[in-house]
Prior knowledge:
NAD; 6 strands; binds adenosine-5'-triphosphate; globular; binds nicotinate mononucleotide
Amino acid sequence: MKIGxxxxxxxxxxxxxxxxxxxxxxxxxxxxxxxxxxxQNPLKPSASLLNEHNRFHLVELAIQDEPKLRASNxxxxxxxxxxxxxxxxxxxxxxxxQEFAIIMGSDSFQNIxxxxxxxxxxxxxxxxxxxxxxxxxxxxxxxxxKILEAPMLDISATDIRNWIKEGxxxxxxxxxxxxxxxxxxxxYK
Length: 189
Ligand SMILES: Nc1ncnc2c1ncn2[C@@H]1O[C@H](COP(=O)(O)OP(=O)(O)OP(=O)(O)O)[C@@H](O)[C@H]1O
Ligand SMILES: O=C(O)c1ccc[n+]([C@@H]2O[C@H](COP(=O)([O-])O)[C@@H](O)[C@H]2O)c1
């Protein structure tokens, strides 16, 4: 089986993430997409991060009815910050019969040379890159790249957190059950 790995902080998961995950699951040769919740992105500050177990639960709520999507907490048991090369090595060892690919936006792909041991990643895992406005894919960085023309919703988790803090509605920006759970638990206030 071919599995696409979509890594992120998902702080919180939003409709932009879900459009991409579902598009890749149904419009490419990948059979499933795992949303891998990273406890700590090596290149992002941790100040506004909700506890990883809560972020993971929100991802589970968001995708609960979709058979091709799965939430993964595999990085919770690995060293912090979460270096993708370590996660990939762990997954390939744990699931030797599965084929793994990586899904990322063209903005992240532009920066992949800053990732730890990126040469190992690009040599061993195909990368499905969806275009984000303002970030052209001008080079492959040595990877086997598949470019995706996926529909885009221009929001970020930072927007969601700011709107919640300001008391603004996040309806339709995240699934209803995710918005309800965030509100009930006073997250991001
Ligand atoms: N609106 C969006 N559409 C498609 N992809 C997105 C969108 N927002 C983020 N992504 C991508 O999803 C992946 C996971 O992102 P992450 O969880 O860090 O979300 P984020 O919304 O960018 O977060 P933050 O605003 O906190 O930095 C990254 O590869 C990121 O580029
Ligand atoms: O391995 C690295 O060096 C590395 C550097 C930056 C980001 N990542 C991973 O990429 C995922 C998406 O990152 P970002 O910055 O695009 O939101 C994040 O969850 C990290 O685990 C990984």
